[in-house]
TrEMBL record:
Assigned protein family: Belongs to the HPrK/P family.
Known role: Catalyzes the ATP- as well as the pyrophosphate-dependent phosphorylation of a specific serine residue in HPr, a phosphocarrier protein of the phosphoenolpyruvate-dependent sugar phosphotransferase system (PTS). HprK/P also catalyzes the pyrophosphate-producing, inorganic phosphate-dependent dephosphorylation (phosphorolysis) of seryl-phosphorylated HPr (P-Ser-HPr).
Co-factor requirement: Mg(2+)
Matching NCBIfam families: hpr-ser
Residue positions of the active site: 144, 165, 183, 249
Highest classification ranks of the organism: Bacteria, Pseudomonadati, Thermodesulfobacteriota, Desulfuromonadia, Desulfuromonadales
Domain HPr(Ser) kinase/phosphorylase N-terminal: 7-133
Residues annotated for Mg(2+) binding in this entry: 166, 208
Binding site for ATP: 159-166
Organism: Pelobacter propionicus (strain DSM 2379 / NBRC 103807 / OttBd1)
Record's catalysed reaction(s): [HPr protein]-L-serine + ATP = [HPr protein]-O-phospho-L-serine + ADP + H(+); [HPr protein]-O-phospho-L-serine + phosphate + H(+) = [HPr protein]-L-serine + diphosphate
Chain segments annotated as coiled-coil in the UniProt record: none
Protein name as it appears in the record: HPr kinase/phosphorylase
GO molecular function: ATP binding; magnesium ion binding; phosphorelay sensor kinase activity; protein serine/threonine kinase activity; protein serine/threonine/tyrosine kinase activity
Designated gene of the protein: hprK
Amino acid sequence: MEGISLSIQELLDDQEYGLGLTLLAGKRGLTNRVVSSRIQKPGLALTGYTEHFHPDRVQVLGNTEISYLSKLDSHLAAECVRTVCSFPISCFIITTGLVPPPFLLETVEAAGIPTLNTSLKSSTFISLLTKFLEERLLPTTHLHGVLVEVLGVGILLTGKSGIGKSECALDLIIRGHRLVADDMVYIKKKMPATLVGQSEKSIQHLMEIRGLGIINIKDLYGVSSIREKKIVDMLLELKEWDPDQEYDRLGLDDHSTTILGVDIPHIIIPVRPGRNLGSIIEVAARNFLLKGMGYHSALDFQNRLLARLEVRPLGNEVE
């Protein structure tokens, strides 16, 4: 996740996850960045033990921490808070609607550490915040192409502009398959090694068909024709047919491409008049599912051919 971060202001502005945050103090620190989805409760740090303190994480102060500070001598408690605030802390969040002691707010204000409040209980809030941060801090990229779901398989169609990606996707939608994204596919890496694609919000459910213009797939074909997100299982690259190039005719060699460090199957489909790309892509999806079940048509054909030539199948030793 190196290089990926979000500001405390973005955390404060959240409406989707129901974090319910309000700002108590430290407004000038709202530009501080969060780089980790892990949360810390700084109870030990408040006692003076800071060896394993991680200031880059969101610091959650719950009933235990606030009660501890309230029961300490005010001068000692203020000194403990000043010690913790000497670190470059991204932010404090106080849960359960607790009222922090005045010296805490004074210290964070002076240090420029944003301190937020939520009415949620610590356990509930930490669960929601972790999901929020994991989603927002995932490695991401944008690819030009079309993402469709065919028989439950997420297929990313790529190729140069005008090759027919959108027209091919439209044919698949008419056949009963679903559109995820057209033109620009927004891809996130979910740990440990899964790619999830979706559309940019501004063009969600829309498709550009040359000669027709922009069409709304959801309005034309109903909600069953679209999907918000889909795991990217394979990449199909559409290329203009080149008579001088030798194309794979057996399918023995499985090729892959790497996106955000994740390898996915990569198949090149040559395009020329007379080829029914919709049917070819449906077959590619079915073949992918078969391979997932351990059946490889090309290898099975090769082994049967070798057996017919009285040669033992691949993978077995020759006597």
